[in-house]
Amino acid sequence: MEKVTFLVAAYGDRLLNVPDIFLKQREEVSYVVVSQYTSKSTQDEFLKKISHRSDVFSVFSDETGVTKSRNLAIKHIPNDASYVFFLDDDVELEELAYERVVQAFSRNDYEVLTFSVSDLAGSRLIKNYAAKEFKHNNISILKVGTIEIAVKASVLIDKPHLTFPENLGAGAKYPLCDEPVFLSRLSKSGCQLGFVPEVITRHPLESSGKEIKNRNEMMARGIAFREIFGSLSLVLNFAFFLKSFKKIRYSKLLALRDIYKGYFL
Fold first, then answer.
1. For the whole model, what pTM was predicted?
2. What is the pLDDT tens value at each position of the chain, 265 positions in all?
């Protein structure tokens, strides 16, 4: 029997939203919920809400940073899990999420799959996803969000060094680009990565064309490009700078400096 474990990252009082994510309880599905900076009263209320469920394992942490949360969840993947899927505390799961994940892996040889995400109403996709399945490369992984990612559990259990970069991501000094670095690490370890155009999660719509507001956001790109592309990123950094020129909301000269500064960190 194939089992899917959903790894949920929660923060503060948003932990109380998490029970609304859960599917109807079934033997093939479980959850690992890691919550950061959550008050004792919120923890107690959450535990009361899930007291009737045997499929939820909870971890409370005083650390900050979503990548630390995800890495802690990885450490608690059940040994009998077949696949894991990463979630945030503001998503919803499709009713057929389990079936879609299992069937997608069963018809592919990929160790890692990414999926589409729709808006909360389920009426439109939150990005311009491809219409057909494809194999990921170092360029395509740059567009992937964490709540799109599923991994064969054995990969993360057998290779504990495959983790999210804790210097990147929300709550870290460099608040972006943790997902492509994680996927790059999986790829470099020998994993095959693919995309399947099926919806597993729903998420509020976000504005397109994100602005680059400060040096840490620009440096995050330099760090990520270095880890993904190596020395080639010395060229790609400048290409990204030109492509993103109109989205940069601080000194363009400093932004160019910062992306290269990230490379040399």
1. 0.97
2. 999 999 999 999 999 999 999 999 999 999 999 999 999 999 999 999 999 999 999 999 999 999 999 999 999 999 999 999 999 999 999 999 999 999 999 999 999 999 999 999 999 999 999 999 999 999 999 999 999 999 999 999 999 999 999 999 999 999 999 999 999 999 999 999 999 999 999 999 875 558 999 999 999 999 999 999 999 999 999 999 999 999 999 999 999 999 999 999 9
User: What is the pairing mode between strands 83-88 and 149-152?
Assistant: antiparallel
Domain boundary among 150, 176, 202: 202
138 plus 174 within the same structural domain: yes
Q: Which of 160, 179, 202 is the last residue of a domain?
A: 202
Which residue range(s) make up the domain with 155?
4-202
